[in-house]
Protein: ROK family protein
Organism: Paenarthrobacter nitroguajacolicus
Amino acid sequence: MVLGAAESPVLSFDVGGTDIKAGLVDARGAVLGMRRVPTPLDPARPGEAVLDRLAELAAELAAEFPGVPARAAGIIVPGIVDSVAGVGVYSANLGWRDFPFTAEAEKRLGIPVAFDHDVRSAAAVEHSFGGSKEFNDVVVMVVGTGIAAAVFSGGKAVTAGGFAGELGHAQVPDPDAAPGTTGSTILEAVGSAGAIAKRYHRASGNRVNGARDVLLKASEGDQAAARVWADAVDALAFTICQCVNIIGTEAVVIGGGLAEAGDELLDPLRTRVNQILDFQRRPHLIRAQLGQDAGLLGAAINARGLLGAGQ
Amino acid sequence: MVLGAAESPVLSFDVGGTDIKAGLVDARGAVLGMRRVPTPLDPARPGEAVLDRLAELAAELAAEFPGVPARAAGIIVPGIVDSVAGVGVYSANLGWRDFPFTAEAEKRLGIPVAFDHDVRSAAAVEHSFGGSKEFNDVVVMVVGTGIAAAVFSGGKAVTAGGFAGELGHAQVPDPDAAPGTTGSTILEAVGSAGAIAKRYHRASGNRVNGARDVLLKASEGDQAAARVWADAVDALAFTICQCVNIIGTEAVVIGGGLAEAGDELLDPLRTRVNQILDFQRRPHLIRAQLGQDAGLLGAAINARGLLGAGQ
């Protein structure tokens, strides 16, 4: 994968709720000195604590690869991100509000910084190189502990100041609603891998290691597991159909931990989407192809965008 | 309102499920010879029947205004419209599938034809001149007998080959679902003016003239009317929040018959939207400003776009 003409690498940081992944990414997309460290959580100065750690990682990488100084850095984070202003607007898990990441990171690193949203950046890589590249109206969903998404319309990323793609917080019918009510909850509370494990434990009393165990139990005839899995499929299908009706989504790429179920997820999801839709165009449901490094590659592409052509 | 430099008018046709509106629209947006005739319904040749009627209307207007020949025509229709290909993909009410409107209309009228979607065209006028013009991420909903919508993202219309904006067919929780189920229905079946009148009749046995009567009865203490109105508000708020979560919609313009309720609709709708949303940006809810002629103006602007600059 050729990321640009330049041979000099860029620094790439994928800041997650649990871990930070860091590395130097060269012009061919190869990651040098890849490392993973816990994300520091400091409620008093959440943004600063993360950037302090990134500066340490940058120094380590500079010491490890003295011959190839990074000329730009890419940082991606979760939550609501205003990439134009360079501001982390909000992160529920990491705790910042309106933190000026680009300016503060450039102070610490001394090189230009491209700051953007984690899932949008990874999804742009997935959308450029993966199974949805022939489509213009695409949603990339990352279904793991939570659910995040990137939305493409007419071939372009929909950002809306960082507020687009909050599919995990979109309302779905609540399978646990009291009888006779039309209560709703959010997709993440039913359709995420985390919710599947949690709701199965609540329904059965049995502890499981994750959504994969629930799927296994369902295949062995466990009724509670089958119900919880079906609820998740229903909720994911519900949200996919909202995308189809609102913005005419023609392909949905599903990544994250839950996508590892492959056709055991995608087949019932297709069936349910077909049941809900009427005259509308049926979306292609596609498993994500790129793995854990899509975020690092996305951050690197963002950083390389700061360098002029041929840089 | 100045539509362009040209003094010569364009033919404008707004084809609805019940009526066709037609007129000559001059460069200032004034409508000459405006008329309204029933939409012909011919199940065997639905597209041709409509175009035959448009050709008759064009001949009438040419005879009435002999000094100002139209140099282009705009035709807008409901349903799924592929304006790039010039094809009426599907109309549930009018019955066509994949009918080549642009090519067939140009044969009959002998001038260039701009063919597009009715609500998207009217919404573009509303969005250019109305209360949402300062916003980039906007949904314009027309809530009448049914519900249609136009979606703008980053300042541009989202079309997705004609499949975007089907908000009336987006799923919402079904207030009539059997107890203990999480059934859902479509927005149009609960939140439209047509549904409000129909559901009140079903709940109370009382016939009403329309949604406005139900609102009046609710204000007089009729519990069934209040319930039906609240269900409609819930359903509209549910769909608005889907737009906010998926594409970061920052303003929703509401037009059509139901918008005539003004703040009696918008105030409870704002309250309900605020209850559903959490950290998300709250959308501005705005009443549409342009009236019945927005469609004709939109079709005229489309037609004028076919003429070169200064034509």
